[in-house]
Amino acid sequence: MFRIGAYNRAVGENSVFALPYHESTMALLILSTPDMFDVAFRKWVVSKTMEFGSFDDVAESISSPIQNFLEDRLEVLCEKLQEDEEIFEILHDYSMTPQRRPKILMQTCGHVAGAAFYYQPRNFQEDGIQWPAAGRMGPNLKFIGLSLHPVYGGHFAFRSVLIFPNVLIQDFCEKVPRPILTAVEDVREALEKFNYNWKDSGFRDFGNPSRRYSTTQMEFFGRPVSERWEVLRPWIDGGAKNID
Ligand code: B12
């Protein structure tokens, strides 16, 4: 939980990312943990296969399975809030403005809420050394920061933020996030793995997480979107024995 004012102060009150709410407005950040995929999403894939008749039919009809699954799950929550006549706005990690700018910066939210420590490259530079080295990222890609969670390391994702414009929590004090890595070299290594080798999920293990993604989940998120459905086929074809 955090106040919009705390987020706006971090991104810069006059920045394009500042959100237009009273500074004491309550916001709730939703993260997904390893079980989101390995338990809940798996059940959803099985039920969709039964509904559509075959795995191939589901794969053909649903192009963004994780997004679709999360929308189904959040719909239940939103209906409940609407029943209670609560006014709220929901922003997702993938919510973009018409100019294709993220509507909300999830890593900043995570840090401000005290949920996950956000390691930003600019804080780990050294005088006289050019780090990160120029020219290693693909076209139009920036060397970006990484958030690490005290329990999950990098085995989690930010999903959504619920904003309640009528709920003002003036006296609330956000939690301070726990630093996960102490040595600057470890931070640089984690950031390099996240930016140069994210497909192998190695960055997720920094901070010694006690809960981790399954191999299926790591493979799924390491693949291009068009190849992801295929990773899930064993869930249906092989039954329970193919679940790790
Ligand atoms: C754009 C984006 C991409 C793009 C571009 C990535 C790139 N390398 O250029 C694409 C689509 C390619 C991409 C790919 C991936 N992404 Co991505 N991506 C994003 C997205 C939507 C926005 C990031 C962004 O543009 N930020 C804008 C810049 C300006 O923000 P910033 O640098 O933090 O600057 C702000 C802060 O510095 C703040 N600030 C200033 N001072 C201070 C002080 C403090 C204390 C604080 C807290 C803040 C603060 O103010 C600045 C703004 O004014 C976020 C989701 C989201 N909505 O946030 C996910 C996100 C960063 N991606 C994520 C991931 C996991 C990935 C992938 C690994 C996907 C995958 N398959 O699993 C890959 C590869 C990552 C990589 N290293 O490139 C995760 C990272 C999770 C984590 N643990 O940190 C995020 C958060 C999504 C999520 N659902 O969790 N991604």
From TrEMBL:
Q: Main localization of the protein?
A: cytoplasm
Protein localization: Cytoplasm
Keyword set, alphabetical order? Cytoplasm, FAD, Flavoprotein, FMN, NADP, Oxidoreductase
Top-rank taxon: Eukaryota
State the needed cofactors, names only: FAD; FMN
Pfam families given in the database record = MMACHC
Q: Does the keyword Secreted apply?
A: no
Q: Name one GO molecular function term.
A: cyanocobalamin reductase (cyanide-eliminating) (NADP+) activity
- What do the Gene Ontology cellular component annotations say? cytoplasm
Q: Please give the biological process terms from Gene Ontology that the record holds.
A: cobalamin metabolic process
- UniProt family annotation: Belongs to the MMACHC family.
Q: How is this protein named in the record?
A: Cyanocobalamin reductase (cyanide-eliminating)
